[in-house]
Amino acid sequence: MTKKTAVALFISLLLVIAGCKQDMDNTKLAPYMYAYIPEDIGHSVTYDVDSISYNFVYGSPQVIDTTYYQLKEVILDTLTPCQLGTPCYHMAEYKRYDTTQPYPVNYQSWYFYTTRTTYVADQNDLPIEKFVFPPIVGITWLGNSLLPANDTIADTYQNYAGWNYTFTSVNAPATVNGHFFDSAAVVSDVLSQNYITDVLSTETYALHIGLVFRQWEVITKQSVASTWANPDSAVGFRVLTWYHGYTP
User: Fold this and answer.
1) For residue 119, which of 34, 50, 189, 179 has the smallest C-alpha distance?
2) Looking at the structure, do residues 77 and 7 belong to the same domain, yes or no?
3) Domain match, 180 and 98 both
4) Count of domains for the chain
5) Which domain holds residue 16?
6) Rounded to whole angstroms, how far apart are CA atoms 135 and 115?
7) Residue 3's pLDDT is what?
8) What's the first-to-final CA gap in the chain, in angstroms?
């Protein structure tokens, strides 16, 4: 083999490799980061929750009611496989309004499961694909596709219609409720706002912990001059869920 032929073959090989790299799916290059959704039995996370309701009747002043409570979510055990052999994890949700008192014995149950590419949480018979693997900034998915959500039918599911989930940040530092996390992923579920209606849902997950923040609100207001931070002549709700602590 001549020197010129060897050089030509080497250059051709480099071009082939470069072409293959361009054709690769970015999701195949990214780590799947399953640690954003812990599955260890006994894993628990405690949250501080602010639940705000807005009520307004024309001719009367705006009424704003705020309820504060703590929520503890614990992975109790696994259930019968529910998705092609994938186990479902049984969650117990404890709520207390007085932090000086122990959590009550009674709890609300829900479950979740993960597949190779999705995390699905089923709370109150609302299965939602809340997270996808691998998490990549800018990737989008229809997280409410398992729901019969329809914009035109006024039912339980209407608020969930048309949501387009996306990662706005992945593996970035975040501070929530005074707690610092060196690797967090932010999911924007929906952000639909104009002068009179507001539908917003966003969640932050931390590696090895899970959910550490959520803001979920559906509000309508008649005072277009007021901001969504402080809506006036408004009806609806805003729920802020803040990380308080966890037990691995």
Assistant:
1) 34
2) no
3) yes
4) 2
5) 1-30
6) 14
7) 47
8) 62
Does 196 lie in the same domain as 87? yes
pLDDT of residue 9: 42
7 and 120 in a single domain? The answer is no
Q: What's the confidence (pLDDT) of residue 157?
A: 81
Token code pair at residue 229: 């931070």
On whether both 69 and 15 belong to a single domain, the answer is: no
Question: pLDDT (tens digit, 9 = 90+) per residue, 11-39?
Answer: 444 443 444 443 334 445 557 899 999 99
Q: Which residues of 175-189 are buried (b: 16+ CB within 10 A; e: fewer)?
A: ebeebebebbbbbbb
Locate tokens 């539908």: which residue?
A: 199
Mean pLDDT in the chain?
Answer: 88
Task: Express each pLDDT in 95-150 by its tens digit.
Answer: 999 999 999 999 999 999 999 999 999 998 889 999 999 999 999 999 999 988 77
As a three-state string, the secondary structure of 36-97 is HCCCCCCCEEEEEEEEEEEECCCCCCCEEEEEEEEEEEEEEEEEEEEECCEEEEEEEEEEEC
Q: For residue 182, which of 203, 202, 214, 208 has the smallest C-alpha distance?
A: 208
Say if residue 24 is in the same domain as residue 49. Answer: no
Phi/psi at 212 (nearest 5 deg)? -125, -10
179 in the same domain as 66? yes
Q: What is the pLDDT of residue 149?
A: 73
Do 20 and 97 share a domain, yes or no? no
